[in-house]
Specification:
By secondary structure, the chain is α+β, with helices and mostly antiparallel strands. The protein is about 25% helix and about 30% strand. The chain has a six-stranded mixed sheet with strand order 3-6-9-10-11-12, with helices on both faces. Strands 5-4-8-7 form a four-stranded mixed sheet, with no helix packed on it. It starts with 18 loop residues before the first helix and ends in a 6-residue tail after the last strand.
């Protein structure tokens, strides 16, 4: 069996196993018809066109996956992460943020939305924040917003994403030069909202945190005072 992955694949609830490679290869072989020389001459385009390359990295597998409604799919440190998209309360939190920032977006001509994919410039990890602010001219990698052009990303912590949101993504968004990372942590023992900013040498140097319910200043380029009581559902 051809080894599919050079990097480990896993999910929060589902392991992506090496058997996937066998299934892909079987599908490839079953879909390829044996053509004799005469048929190949009559239809030269029918030979190699159907051949597909087996994904060998998490990123390559991500690029060929079909849409998975109801799931969040990300590539983090060479791993394919598939997790539930969130509870109604989870979506309500990001919706409240979107509503609070709407006047600012209209004033500055920015876009803002739930869950667009972000490509981390450099390693090409793909993350799906709960809310993103980006300018109209933000550069892209295919259908993904390039991290270096994004204004702010927001993650709403859920029980299954505690480590990724509080640790891994802090580092990755800084690596991708996202100026402001907003972390809404409703599952902490003392619910809080934290903003990371001021990137230096690929690390956020300024971290401001407030108990949920207090005012929190979102620094440049956002420059907005956020009333975090809107997240107290």
């Amino acid at each position: 069996m051809v080894a599919m992955m050079e990097e480990e694949l896993h999910t929060d609830a589902v392991e992506v196993e090496e058997d996937y490679t066998e299934a892909v290869e079987e599908e490839q072989h079953s879909g390829e018809e044996e053509l004799d020389e005469a048929e190949q001459e009559d239809n030269p385009k029918s030979t190699a066109v159907r051949r597909r390359r087996t994904p060998r990295t998490a990123r390559e597998l991500f690029d060929v996956l079909p849409p998975l409604p109801g799931f969040r799919v990300e590539v983090i440190e060479g791993k394919l992460i598939v997790s539930p998209s969130g509870t109604p309360e989870h979506f309500l939190t990001s919706d409240e943020l979107a509503y609070a920032l709407r006047p600012l977006r209209k004033e500055r001509g920015w876009h803002g939305a739930h869950g667009p994919q972000i490509c981390i410039d450099g390693p090409r990890y793909s993350l799906q924040p709960d809310y993103v602010l980006w300018p109209r001219d933000c550069k892209r990698w295919g259908n993904e917003l390039l991290s270096t052009g994004v204004i702010m990303v927001t993650e709403v912590v859920s029980p299954s994403s505690v480590r990724d949101d509080r640790e891994e993504k802090v580092r990755l968004y800084a690596l991708g030069e996202v100026p402001v990372y907003l972390l809404i942590d409703q599952v902490a023992k003392c619910p809080s909202v934290t903003v990371y900013s001021d990137i230096e040498d690929g690390v956020y140097r300024t971290i401001d945190s407030e108990p949920m319910g207090k005012l929190l200043y979102l620094p440049d380029p956002v420059n907005f005072e956020l009333d975090t009581s809107i997240f107290m559902v």
